[in-house]
Design brief:
With 199 residues, the protein is mainly alpha-helical. The protein has one domain. 81% of the residues lie in helices and 0% in strands. It contains 10 helices and no strands. Helix 2 runs parallel beside helix 8 and helix 3 packs across helix 7. The radius of gyration is 17 Å and the shape is globular.
Amino acid sequence: MPLTLLMALVSFAFVTTVTPGPNNLMLMASGANFGFRRTLPHMLGIAGGVSVMALLVGLGMIALFEAVPALSTILEVLSLGYLLWLALKIATAAPLDRQEANSRPMSFFQAAMFQWVNPKAWAMCLSAVTLYAPDGSFLSVAIVAGAFALVSFPSISVWAWLGTVVRRWLSNPFRLRVFNFTMAALLVGSLYPVLGFEF
């Protein structure tokens, strides 16, 4: 892959992973509710999950979606349902002083598996493979996956850190409730441009 194309790919991976979306909004909520250290498995799961998804998409999953168009609709319905459930969980999160005993942040495996119902992750991977690995060769697809592995963790960690910045301010139960409701509403709102809903 030429250096200019590689730099474009890295820029694409950075912009798509650092901008708001379901992953980053959940990381900010997790950072605020659980702290940065406890959110690390969630962040690593996102980075690993997106990279594996890009690899598998590039190695043949695009052909599967082209062969069976109904899969796109099924994926959208599953994504919508799961993200609405996550938004509800965020909106109804317990106050900080009660969370240590009965709440846990998303695990590595849960975060990695979440990418398969995350519409933004699908859009990122499909676009990246189409633009930067059009020949479908293993090497070019592996470079795309590697770019996401390299760039995604530092870019998404900013969102978890931002959550920890507001953690002390959120020690007030009312402010925490407002924050969690806002994060839940933004998570639902993030579905609009990705799924292309028409209201």
